[in-house]
Write a structure and sequence with these properties.
globular; 5-stranded parallel β-sheet; 4-stranded mixed β-sheet; alpha/beta; 43% helix
């Protein structure tokens, strides 16, 4: 059973740190410069919440974000968080991004990057992920949602493809209700917290992800033409919701960890089990 390799209830908190491009999905002409302004501010707000709570997270960064916000990348690293890859251009992901984004992010950060998440959780090339040298891939949301997140037959929890650990986003047991960013925006906080606790009890760990632009005051910008379910509780309200989630989990004595540390702990526990 996979859960026996998880020592303690671990929280894998992550942020898809990309240039804001959602208005383009709704027909708005939106430049990279405008998108970066939103994402810089949102990322700094996220970092403020994490710093106040003394927890570490993993930031999946696009090449565009890394190149245009090196000062924010420095803050992410200086405050002890992990940097991973999230493609190059969030709007137009390409198969060459697996290698190119690693090259860009490692060049900006001056350190090795171990993980990858595909923009919009689109499918990835497993052979390229392995060839480029990633040790984990978190590009799967195995939820019960019509469309690109409908993955009812995919594993709910971590699994291996060759030497690469696959770390799906957490969904609730049985009905596979998604527990990613949109859920925290729109569910009552008490219900979301209950679902998280329920999933932790079942799986032994919890994976979720958010985006910097959720922490920007989207309601003040009708020109973005954002749907209500995205604007709902955005900006400083989302800062409060993230803060409350972290405080609830810390009160329950949960352990926050980066994705790389999670992989290392699981692999070491598997090795110890095999040697017995």
């Amino acid at each position: 059973m996979q859960r026996k390799y998880i020592k303690g209830d671990m929280i894998l908190l992550s942020f898809d740190t990309e240039e804001f491009d959602v208005p383009r999905e709704h027909g708005v002409d939106f430049s990279l410069e405008e998108g970066m302004k939103v994402s810089r501010e949102g990322t700094n707000r996220i970092l403020d919440v994490l710093k106040d709570n003394d927890v570490k997270a993993t930031f999946f960064c696009t090449g565009n974000f890394a190149l245009h916000a090196p000062e924010v990348m420095k803050r992410i690293m200086d405050e002890g968080h992990e940097v991973a890859c999230h493609g190059v251009d969030h709007w137009q992901p390409k198969e060459t991004d697996f290698a190119k984004s690693k090259e860009i992010v490692e060049g900006v950060c001056g350190r090795k990057v171990y993980g990858y998440r595909q923009p919009r959780m689109f499918p990835v090339s497993d052979s390229e992920i392995a060839r480029v040298g990633y040790t984990y891939n978190s590009s799967l949301n195995p939820a019960f949602i019509p469309g690109r997140y409908m993955h009812l037959t995919a594993p709910r929890t971590w699994f291996m493809k060759g030497d690469v650990m696959q770390i799906p986003a957490s969904v609730s047991p049985w009905i596979r209700f998604p527990l990613f960013w949109l859920a925290l925006h729109n569910l009552p906080e008490g219900l979301y917290h209950w679902l998280v606790r329920r999933t932790l009890k079942h799986d032994g760990y919890f994976v979720t992800y958010f985006h910097p632009w959720e922490f920007y005051d989207l309601k003040e910008h009708p020109e973005f033409k954002m749907p209500f379910i995205i604007k709902n509780h955005s900006g400083r309200e989302m800062m409060q919701r993230l803060d409350s989630l972290i405080k609830m989990l810390k009160k329950d004595k949960r352990q926050f960890t980066t994705f790389s540390n999670f992989v290392e702990n699981v692999v070491n526990n598997v090795k110890m089990d095999c040697e017995r």
